[in-house]
Amino acid sequence: MTLEETVVQDEAVESLRNREQQHWPAHLQGYLVPLVLKLANGDWFTSRTSACGLFSVTYPRVSNQAKEEPRQAFKGLSDDDTPMVRQSAAPKLGEFA
Which residues make Cβ contacts (< 8 Å) with residue 43, sequence separation at least 6? Predict the structure, then answer.
């Protein structure tokens, strides 16, 4: 991944983070949470690092029934085999908690 791709990836995550307040919780639960989970379970480490930045903005606004899967997915990212994913998850743990 080149620097430009990383910058684009980070900007996309930041854009989603900034706009989450504009969505209803049902919309977040129906669209954004599945996207975050798909990213978290992606084959490429870049998708998993992107997911790390999105959990904390979606998790507080979804129903209690929908919180278990994101919790487990974030835990998986914290234990990921790829160091870059763990490095992305570590600073986001406080926000997520």
Answer: none
